Amino acid sequence: MQTGFKSVYQTTINAPTEKVWQALTDASIVKQYFFGSNMKTDWKVGSPVLFTGEYEGQTYTDEGTVLEYEPNKRLSFSYLSSWSNLPDETNNYLQVTYEVQPEQQGTQLTVTQTNYDEERAKHSQQSWAVVIDGLKKIVE
């Protein structure tokens, strides 16, 4: 499996950086735009990150670890989707990074995911567009 691909999704959100950051890190807000996922973490580096829920009648548990956390700037976590059907091994985890930066029009958000094959990288960009559109509807 090729894993050298990454997807990058970047957009401007017409809201203050602090509000965008809260929408990325507050579980009650994440649930509203991230396919109904229940996110559980304390955002301390080294702590677990869990996403649980039900999608199309199937329950799921996606897991990872907080890798970086710099409030109102950058956070990063590893991520293994239960939908991937891959074994729980380090090299099967993706890395997700959120970066926020103030702009005149609001906040620039960059979402990067790594450790993909080419097909999954393309699909990921489309998925992030849907997710972040949902986030925008909440904070703008």
From TrEMBL:
<dbReference type="InterPro" id="IPR013538">
    <property type="entry name" value="ASHA1/2-like_C"/>
</dbReference>
<dbReference type="Pfam" id="PF08327">
    <property type="entry name" value="AHSA1"/>
</dbReference>
<dbReference type="InterPro" id="IPR023393">
    <property type="entry name" value="START-like_dom_sf"/>
</dbReference>
<feature type="domain" description="Activator of Hsp90 ATPase homologue 1/2-like C-terminal">
    <location>
        <begin position="14"/>
        <end position="140"/>
    </location>
</feature>
<comment type="similarity">
    <text>Belongs to the AHA1 family.</text>
</comment>
<protein>
    <submittedName>
        <fullName>SRPBCC domain-containing protein</fullName>
    </submittedName>
</protein>
